[in-house]
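FORM 7B - TANDEM STRUCTURE REPORT

SECTION 1: FIRST PROTEIN
SEQUENCE AND C-ALPHA CELLS:
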Amino acid sequence: MTYATMKPDLAGSNLTGVFWAFLGVGLFGFIYISGRLSGGDISAGQLIWFRYVGALIAMTLWIAIFPSERAKVRSRQVPVHGLRAMAGGGGGMAAIYAASHMSVTSATAIGLLDGLFVIILGLVLLGERFSAKQWAAAALCLLGAAVVVLASGAATVQLEDMLPASVALLGALLVATESIMIKKLARSEMSVSVLFYVSLFGTVLFSVPAAASWNSLGPAATGLLLLLGPIALAGQLCNIFAFRRSDAALIGPIRYTWIIWGALFGWLFFGEIPLAATWGGMAFILCGGCYLAFSQNR
C-alpha cells in the first residue's frame, strides 16, 4: 500500500496538515526542553538515547500485541530510515546541547531557521511549488518569530556563544533534512514501519554518545525519561499525517509556532510571563499560519 495519491489539491487537506504539524511542534518542543526540566544533570546524548529506547519499547509492544502490524514493518527503504534517524537524532542533540550552553531563547531563535530550510529543501529536492501569497504568509510567520527574538534580546550572540550557536544552526539544518525524508517515506511506507525503524536505528546509533556522557539515574528518573519515547512517537505520527496531506514547503513555516508553544511551556513550567512583543509576534505567526492552512497548493 502506498500513499503517493493521498494529497488532493484542496484547502481542506492543507488545513488538516497544518493542524497535525502544529500539534507535532508542541510535542517535540516538550522533548527539547526536557534538558532544562532535568536541571541540566543529564547530557543531550543520554536524553536522545532514552527517547529512542522508550520509543523502541513502545513499538515492540505494539507489534507484539497486534500481530497484524508485523507485515507493515517490512520496508524497501531501510537505509533511508537509518539516515533519517541520524539526521533527526543529531538535530535533537544539537538543540538540547545549544540550549544547555547558551541562552535558551537564543538557541530557540536559531533553531527556528529549520522552517526556512524546510521550504528551500522542499522546493529544490521535491519540486514543490509555492505561490506568491503563500510566500507572503511564510514571511509573516518569519516576521512574527523575528519580533519575539529581537524583543527578547536573543539576536545578540556573545563570542563565547559561537560554538553552541553553530551547533544550533547545524541542528536546524539536520531537523529540516529529516522533515524532507519523512515526506518521502510518508509517500510509500506504512506508519508502523516509519516509527519502528527510526526507533531501532536511533537506539543503536546514539548508544555511543549516551555511553560517553552517561550519568547514573534512579528508577523514577529512568522511567520518566523512557516516557519521552511515546511522546516522540506521537509527535512523529503527527508529522507523518501532516506531510501526507500537505507539501513540506507549506508545513515548514508552521515550525515557527514553536514560539507559541515555548511561551506556553515557559509559563506552565518556569513561571515566565510573555512580553507584549511576544504576543504581537504570536499574532503574526497565527495569521500567516491560518492563511497557509486554508490556502490551496499551486
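SECTION 2: SECOND PROTEIN
SEQUENCE AND C-ALPHA CELLS:
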Amino acid sequence: MNSKLCRIMAQMMIEGFRPFGGEIAEDVYSKLGCKDASRAYWLHRWPILHCLGCNKRCTPKSTEGFQVPMQFPASQTQNKFSMLPEEMLQAKKFLRVDEAAYCLNISERTVRKLVDDGVLVRHMRLPIRITAESVREEMGRVDW
C-alpha cells in the first residue's frame, strides 16, 4: 500500500467510510471489469461503495450483489475505570472529580456543585481532590 492510497483511505475513514466485511457476489467483479478480485478492498458508507484494490478505484452504480451490512448503534461512552466504585474507595484516600463522579454515578459538574455546597469534603490544595470517606457517605444516602 503506497502513501497516496493511505492518505485516500484515511480521508475516507474521516468522512465516515468503513471497511466492508460482507459477502460480494462474483458477478459484481465481472460487471466492473476487475482483473484480480482477490486484491479488492472495499470501503462503504452505505449505500456508497468504493474499491481501493487497484488504480481504477471502482464505484458501483448500485448495491446489487453486495450483502447489506448490519447497522449497529454507536457505542456509548466506554468505562474508563478498571475498578468498581467500592474498590476505588477502598484503594484511595482522595479521589479526582471524575473518579468521584464515576463512584456516585453523577456528572463532574454535579460533583463540583456538591463540593461547593459542602456535601463532599475536598482537600484544601489544588487540584481538587475529594475524600473517599465523604464519597462513601454520599453513596450511603439513598431515599427509599
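SECTION 3: OBSERVATIONS ON SECOND PROTEIN
The longest strand covers residues 42-45.
The two ends are 62 Å apart (CA to CA).

SECTION 4: SIGNATURE
Preparer initials: ____
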